[in-house]
Design a protein that fits this description.
heterodimer, A: about 475 residues, alpha/beta, Rossmann fold, 2 domains, 16 helices, about 35% helix, B: alpha+beta, Alpha-Beta Plaits, two-stranded antiparallel sheet, 8 helices, globular, BFD-like [2Fe-2S] binding protein (chain B), metal ion binding (chain B), 4Fe4S_Fe_S_CS (chain B), iron (chain B), 4Fe-4S (chain B)
Chain lengths: ~475, ~200
């Protein structure tokens, strides 16, 4: 059995507990081991980051991807907004995404002569988050002071679309040209269902509250991401859109950089890449029969991740999230809305939250995202009073601690979880690179099931997933 | 329902830019001598101002006496309440705000009791004072369901307007994009099923 992988380090943020209170990481617990993705699935891709070349590999891949991109529309005196999102900075420590953005700036400047290149970095529900990343990665200096953390409550601009009037953040569109810089990590499969994943920021981190609310309330769980396509397809956006650059992700790390003047063409490639690279591990997690989940990563509860799979998606691992024939994942906001006050589903189509999760130990995860649904549905132990206080003060989590208990340290929490659940299976959502940390019995279970899952995905599921999205299987070649 | 445990406090660093005034979801901030003044009694502790202040001049502090914003939905005419929810295409029992756990029926009750703008609804129920982002459309839909068409606060950008719903997506759009994986019609049926489950019982 391998030693555990070093987990992602705790990060100082106004949304989480001070790292000094994270005294012990779950990977340090006795009886923990790690699995490499390539040991589970031999077809796991090679990474450019992490790799021996370090961050230089990302710069080289970005330069290469941009080589054939048409930038002739950008003139020397034009203004350019490079649009980014918070999520990229949570991947692999954030440096690869920051380096890709810096490289895009350099290449645009070099090829077009433009100097007025600004960074517009959007957020989820933590309005200061990208300001923290801009500081951490020296982006303000790199962009000569032309950076801005933007939020969905900032001044808006109406956008006429095929769905009628929607609203974007004004400062996203206040330049002659926009460049969409993002990543292909599948992340919120429960929301976008891997349909137009690459387009989504136009309905989220670049969008006003009206558009984001439309996404989450007005269209339904499988139609919602059309808000993104509607906004991107509008005249306003099309007139300003120059090109897109994506950090191509897999559960083991960054596997390349892709760019295109045609976002829909890149979207097709990233859709297929996401299904291919994440489909097996997501499906394998559905084979876990019982476990204790430990949250141990610097981001909100649903977004902590193991082997590239976010906890929110693990709570839905009892269903095939990629299968569009399922309307409601066990966790998504439409599903959450469809429980009544007594906790009973309003429709038979609401599936239960993954019953394999016997207990959750919240060792380290932030507030800044409505997460009470998770403690309401799964017994949860929060480690330290300091962390409980962060959640109690969070306007988005007023009920989180109503359904959780507090332990003074991780060991106490784990003893309670082991004794109460009777399981020895532990899965740790700590962002470990190239694999995942877990307990030895669970590692054994996943190894035993991996080959069968791999065949099932290749032979049965992948053809269905591609067909549901109108993609030809040849795209995988 | 929301238990309001925090309040905003402005420091002398305020530069009078009015950003906080423009985004406060309950219009609890005004300007005096180019300094932001918080109406503490109406502050819902959402932190929107603190999160967007460009000079970090606002801090959220604990209230000495927390209060609860809640409307008892059983105290209004139930037939009218159900009618508003039905018009807005919501099941009365469903959530419409994840942060505060507010349900459609509570907002409908607030409307029946006189709250005729999103700002007043937020003050009465606490809705839209958690994440401040996701629940504006349900509020606008419920107001419209009651025949009310509010105008956005003057000089601010708290909200702009109601947008499309599943029942209004054109056939042309549905036909054009369904093959890309967007299940417009099936999702509309799902939403209709939820509305009808307990409605009228």
């Amino acid at each position: 059995m391998r030693k555990p992988i070093q987990p992602s380090k705790a990060r100082k943020s106004e949304y989480g507990v001070d790292p000094k209170y994270v005294e012990k990481r779950a990977a340090e617990l006795p009886n923990m081991t790690s699995l490499l993705l390539k040991d589970l699935f031999p077809d796991t891709p090679e990474t450019i980051y992490p790799s021996d070349k370090g961050i230089q590999a990302v710069r080289e891949a970005t330069e290469k991807a941009l080589k054939d991109i048409d930038m002739s529309m950008i003139e020397k005196d034009d203004s350019v907004n490079i649009c980014a999102s918070h999520h990229g900075f949570t991947l692999l420590g954030g440096e690869p995404y920051a380096e890709m953005i810096k490289t895009v700036r350099d290449v645009v400047n070099r090829r077009t002569g433009a100097e007025n290149i600004r960074l517009r970095a959007g957020v989820g529900l933590r309005f200061r988050e990208t300001e923290e990343y801009i500081r951490e990665f020296g982006l303000d200096d790199y962009f000569k002071g032309k950076t801005k953390g933007i939020a969905p409550v900032d001044e808006g601009i109406p956008i006429e679309t095929e769905l009628g009037t929607l609203y974007g953040i004004k400062s996203v569109y206040d330049a002659d040209w926009i460049i969409h810089t993002h990543n292909s990590d599948v992340r919120e499969i429960h929301f976008h269902r891997q349909v137009d994943r690459a387009v989504k920021p136009f309905a989220m981190s670049y969008a006003r509250i009206e558009s984001r609310s439309t996404y989450h309330w007005n269209l339904g769980p499988r139609a919602s991401n059309f808000v993104a396509r509607a906004i991107f397809g509008s005249d306003l956006v099309q007139e300003k859109f120059a090109f897109t650059t994506f950090l191509e992700m897999s559960p083991v790390g960054a596997i390349g950089v892709d760019a295109d003047n045609d976002l829909y063409a890149l979207n097709d490639r990233m859709t297929a890449s996401g299904l291919k690279n994440y489909g097996k591990i997501v499906t394998l997690f559905g084979e876990i029969e019982d476990c204790i989940s430990v949250l141990d990563f610097p981001c909100p509860v649903p977004y902590v991740f193991a082997a590239g799979v976010i906890y929110a998606n693990f709570t839905s691992a009892n269903k095939d999230l990629f299968d569009l024939d399922y309307a409601l994942p066990p966790y998504t906001w439409y599903t959450e809305a469809f429980y009544d006050e007594e906790g009973k589903p309003l429709t038979e189509e609401v599936p239960p939250l993954n019953p394999a999760i016997n207990m959750v130990v919240h060792n380290y995860a932030w507030g800044g995202y409505p997460s009470a649904f998770f403690t309401e549905h799964t017994p949860t132990v929060v480690v330290t009073n300091e962390q409980a206080e962060i959640l109690n003060r969070d306007p988005q989590n007023q009920e989180y601690m109503d359904h959780a208990v507090i332990a003074d340290k991780l060991d106490t929490a784990m003893d309670f979880a082991y004794n109460t659940t009777g399981t020895e299976n532990v899965i740790i959502f700590d962002g470990a690179m190239e694999g995942l940390n877990l307990s030895k019995p669970l590692a054994k279970r996943l190894k035993e099931k991996a080959e069968e899952v791999s065949k099932r995905v290749d032979n049965d599921l992948m053809p269905k997933w591609l067909k549901q999205r109108g993609l030809d299987p040849s795209i995988l070649k | 329902m929301k238990e309001v445990t925090l309040k905003a406090v402005v420091s002398d660093d305020c530069i009078g830019c009015e950003t906080c005034v423009e985004i406060c979801p309950v219009e609890a901030i005004s300007m005096e001598d180019r300094k932001a003044i918080i109406d503490v009694d109406n502050c819902m502790g959402c932190g929107n101002c603190e999160q967007r202040c460009p000079v970090y001049a606002i801090e959220m502090v604990k209230r000495e006496e927390p209060f609860v914003a809640k409307v008892d939905s059983t105290k209004v005419d139930q037939e009218k309440l159900r009618e508003i929810c039905k018009n807005a295409k919501f099941n009365p029992d469903q959530l419409i705000c994840y942060c505060t756990g507010t349900r459609a029926k509570e907002v409908a009750a607030a409307i029946l009791l006189g709250a005729n703008t999103p700002e007043k609804i937020s003050r009465e129920t606490g809705v839209r004072t958690g994440c401040k982002v996701e629940c504006i459309q349900p509020i606008l839909r419920l107001l419209e369901g009651a025949g009310i068409h509010p105008t956005p606060p003057e000089g601010g950008h708290q909200w702009y307007g109601k947008t499309v719903t599943a029942w209004e997506v054109s056939k042309e759009v549905k036909d054009k994009y369904s093959k890309r994986g967007f299940r417009f019609e099936e999702d509309r049926v799902l939403l209709d099923n939820v509305i009808e489950q307990k409605e009228g019982k």
